[in-house]
Amino acid sequence: MNTHMAYDCNNCMPWNLGPELCAAQVEDQSFFYIQEIVDPRLARDKDCTAIICVVHGQTSCKQIEQEFMGLVGTSTWRWNARQLSEGRFVMRFPNAQMVREWSGFKNYYSMRNVDAQLKIAPWSNVGAKGILQQA
């Protein structure tokens, strides 16, 4: 038999975990503050991720993977490219230093076994729907 009212229930919502209301000085011009909590592991993964754009020719994920296997090797790292859109791929590198080195080329990288040229850049907000407004 249910003898308690809804507001007496111990399983209430944790109201303190929502966005914090800020700057209510002017009517209808307040905003909410959402604290950004970034997992350190995800931040490391982002630093080790590169965007590969095909600027000339055509290539596939497997061909990009084989290119890096031949150049760098496979003994310590498993190369895995994923296609984002036509001519755009994302691939993780063993470390952030390698991403900086490969993205530092002023010219495009010409693949050895395929007639294609690549531009390698550090990861950015690929596919973001918009920029979060900041106050």
Q: Distance between the terminal alpha carbons, to the nearest Å?
A: 51 Å
Tell me, what is the CATH class of the domain at 40-122? Alpha Beta
CATH topology of the domain at 40-122: Alpha-Beta Plaits
Low-confidence stretches: none
Structural class: alpha+beta
Q: Gyration radius, to the nearest Å?
A: 24 Å
Neighbour order of strands in the largest sheet: 4-5-3-7-6
Number of helices: 3
CATH hierarchy: architecture of the domain at 40-122: 2-Layer Sandwich
Number of strands: 7
Largest sheet: 5 strands, antiparallel
Percentage of residues assigned to helices: 10-25%
Average predicted local confidence, pLDDT: 78
Structure description:
The structure is a single chain. With 135 residues, the protein is α+β, with helices and mostly antiparallel strands. The protein has a domain at 40-122: Alpha-Beta Plaits (2-Layer Sandwich), CATH 3.30.70. It contains three helices and seven strands. The strands form two sheets. The chain has a five-stranded antiparallel beta sheet with strand order 4-5-3-7-6. A two-stranded antiparallel ribbon has the order 1-2.
